[in-house]
């Protein structure tokens, strides 16, 4: 079973996951590409065009059938041969994370203002990449994947699509989980022929020194495997099962949940 373990999920709420060396790198066939229909609640309509930027919705189908939605923010000031930049979000997030601040502070808008061709990725299972060519999102088959598949399928499909559309090598910016999949791929010499540079924000490689009691208890008790067998396939921070799990964890005398952020990530001791 390739389901993401709840222990890993908890640890990398912001920064933390497992070793990249165990990633499987699989061959990728040609991806299906298309312009996505414009939706009133889509990223382009609701968050980009409202700020005065030209934006396109794109669909990318991975080799294993997941349909990924990407947003393309067209560059300002330097039309024509603009260099593409791919922005990849972290865990529990989607592409909207790059657009939450005002245009003068959001990386996606700042890049477009400086003439870059901006492509925002949305990983499988997120709000804007919820489709599959065969499986329903309510089925166990749909959720039978881990970050291994993000490396083997999602990242190559994204890189290939942007490269084919622009005919240029691209810059890559990843946050948290977005750094994990990049490091795993690059360590196997994957996608390097399409890459100009990579900026890794809050990079993930090892979690052997994690201090989060929540994550440790989840790992010791195989919480994810239990939930999967019970038919709870999707881990959502707003879901009833997750809320109950957190309440039960916080009831333990060894866990201080007055600060949930620290409960997830553990304490960070910085030098004075």
UniProtKB/TrEMBL annotation:
Keyword Magnesium tagged: no
Family recorded in the similarity comment: Belongs to the AB hydrolase superfamily. Lipase family.
Keyword annotations: Glycoprotein, Hydrolase, Lipid degradation, Lipid metabolism, Signal
Gene Ontology terms, MF aspect: hydrolase activity
Gene3D superfamilies found in the cross-reference section: alpha/beta hydrolase
Ranges of residues in domain Partial AB-hydrolase lipase: 45-100
Recorded coiled-coil stretches: none
SUPFAM superfamilies: alpha/beta-Hydrolases
Protein name listed in UniProt: Partial AB-hydrolase lipase domain-containing protein
Cleaved signal peptide residues: 1-20
Species whose genome carries this gene: Pisum sativum
Single Gene Ontology BP annotation: lipid catabolic process
């Amino acid at each position: 079973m390739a389901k993401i373990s709840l222990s890993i999920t908890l640890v990398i709420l912001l920064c933390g996951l497992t070793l990249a060396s165990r990633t499987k790198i699989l061959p990728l066939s040609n991806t299906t590409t298309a312009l996505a229909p414009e939706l009133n609640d889509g990223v382009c309509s609701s968050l980009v065009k409202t700020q005065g930027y030209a934006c396109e919705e794109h669909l990318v189908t991975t080799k294993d059938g997941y349909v990924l939605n990407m947003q393309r923010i067209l560059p300002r000031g330097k039309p024509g041969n603009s260099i593409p930049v791919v922005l990849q979000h972290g865990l529990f997030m989607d592409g909207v994370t790059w657009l939450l601040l005002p245009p003068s502070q959001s990386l996606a808008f700042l890049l477009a203002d400086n003439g870059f061709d901006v492509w925002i990725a949305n990983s499988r299972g997120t709000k804007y990449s919820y489709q599959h060519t065969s499986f329903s999102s309510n089925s166990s088959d749909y959720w039978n994947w881990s970050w291994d598949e993000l490396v083997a399928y999602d990242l190559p499909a994204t890189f290939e699509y942007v490269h084919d559309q622009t005919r240029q090598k691209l810059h890559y910016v990843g946050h948290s989980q977005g750094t994990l999949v990049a490091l795993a791929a690059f360590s196997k010499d994957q996608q390097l022929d399409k890459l100009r540079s990579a900026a890794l924000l809050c990079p993930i490689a090892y979690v052997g020194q994690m201090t989060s009691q929540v994550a440790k208890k989840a790992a010791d008790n195989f919480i994810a495997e239990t939930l999967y067998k019970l038919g709870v396939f999707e881990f959502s921070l707003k879901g009833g099962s997750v809320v109950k799990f957190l309440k039960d964890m916080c009831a333990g005398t060894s866990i201080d949940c007055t600060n949930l952020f620290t409960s997830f990530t553990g304490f960070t001791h910085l030098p004075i």
